[in-house]
């Protein structure tokens, strides 16, 4: 019996040993690993990049919109040269010409927001890029409008100008508001430092790419066709030559002495001071802008002075000399109040001399009526001339603008309606007006043939925009809305005497016999699915 018992115990022990050995050879189930961990340091949507202390937020949007009497992303017809489609800016009243009454635009955008903590504070990198498809070409074009670093108070890269205060910027409208110098849509390259003084008070100094605000340039009155439109009809796409001039077809229409014409001389210098609180913000900003002219386009009758062999001797001849350097400037004040229920109201005022791009995004106006009338306006930072009688300094153009907007959130929060508007006034001083009118044969095409004794030569003009947008959010992050805007151009060069010499436009248009104020209604309908912004 003892032998049997010992045999059974030994067998059991052996089985236990074998089973233990087999168990040791079997794979062990791994514990769950959290590959994506929420990062709560910077708000919603951030996650830790696995294996690092760096947080990442992916964002973006898909936007589909249809535009009436507007194109290129909500630019009102006639407010920036010929509209998409190549036809005249005809206010949509011609239905068989080359102008698109309706334009489509589809845009897909992705953003990356990467942040981490350092001994100097948060290090942030932000990128936003995408591609869009716009009628009539239907070609997909890539772009990026944001790419900046923030570290220890510095902001460097492509972002919105620190001059901008209250801007419509898409918060209250879809239309591209031309009454403001807002850089939010495309961005601008900056090198900036922001100091925080406590209680929401901050100050920033920034040096910025002048191309962002130098869409206007400075004009030499001696340059052929340097201010208005050339001998061809102004209904072709704008093209920029190597010397900075702008052409339609084979005729030069606007020669701007922009950095592309004589090099990047100095950046725009920006400073602002603002206070941000739960109730909103208020701020002031200022800018210094180089409005100097390039070389004179003539030798002022001096036969000994020449630039033989130069490809662009009439515009870029060093021997011709240049006017004294001139600095333009701009100042702004603006703010926004956050009202109960989520409503918002804001306003902004800008005054500039020789820095028109800070007050408005619009440069060239040309609106044709269905009959014989048209409205025009041309805007530059300054005007100068060099003749046998003497040379002028750069005469700076004065431009001021005011913008305001109000947005109401309806009960339930799914509907919101805004009312917004702005006004821009452009003033050439008496010397600049004399230069323009005295050289209108080369500067104010196609009005150049009008008799001097009867032609109303007044380059000053103004315009305003009033719009309303209503947006519906059936579910969070889905915007469905309609924006309707009225634009009024108070034309330069108004009058009838001698205006019959204005050339007829392509497309079988009658000759323009009246230069007068014009107006246009535009609309934009949008669907947009937003991800984390």
Describe, in plain words, how this protein is organized in 3D.
The chain has 533 residues and is mostly beta strands. The chain has a domain at 147-303 and 310-523: Porin, CATH 2.40.160. Helix content is 8%, strand content 44%. It is built from four helices and 31 strands. It has a 16-stranded antiparallel β-barrel with strand order 3-6-7-8-9-10-11-16-17-18-19-26-27-28-29-31. Strands 12-22-25 form a three-stranded mixed sheet, with helices on one face. The chain has a three-stranded antiparallel sheet with strand order 13-14-15, with no helix packed on it. A hairpin with a 6-residue loop joins strand 2 and strand 3. It is globular and about 75 Å long. Mean pLDDT is 79; it is low at 15-19, 81-88, 92-96, 227-260 and 503-507.
Task: Give the strand content.
Answer: 35-45%
Neighbour order of strands in the largest sheet: 3-6-7-8-9-10-11-16-17-18-19-26-27-28-29-31
Query: How many beta-strand runs?
Result: 31
Using the coordinates above, name the CATH class of the domain at 147-303 and 310-523: Mainly Beta
By CATH, the topology of the domain at 147-303 and 310-523 is Porin
The low-confidence runs, each spanning 5 or more residues with pLDDT under 50, are: 15-19, 81-88, 92-96, 227-260, 503-507
Shape: globular
Short description:
With 533 residues, the chain is mainly beta. Helices cover 8% and strands 44% of the residues.
How are the SSEs ordered, and which strands pair?
Elements: H1 2-25, E1 37-38, E2 47-48, E3 55-68, E4 70-71, E5 75-76, E6 102-118, E7 121-134, E8 140-151, E9 154-159, E10 188-198, E11 201-208, E12 218-220, E13 238-240, E14 245-248, E15 251-255, H2 259-262, E16 268-277, E17 280-290, E18 327-338, E19 344-353, E20 364-368, E21 373-378, E22 382-384, E23 386-387, E24 390-391, E25 395-396, E26 398-409, E27 415-427, H3 430-438, H4 440-443, E28 461-472, E29 478-490, E30 514-515, E31 518-530
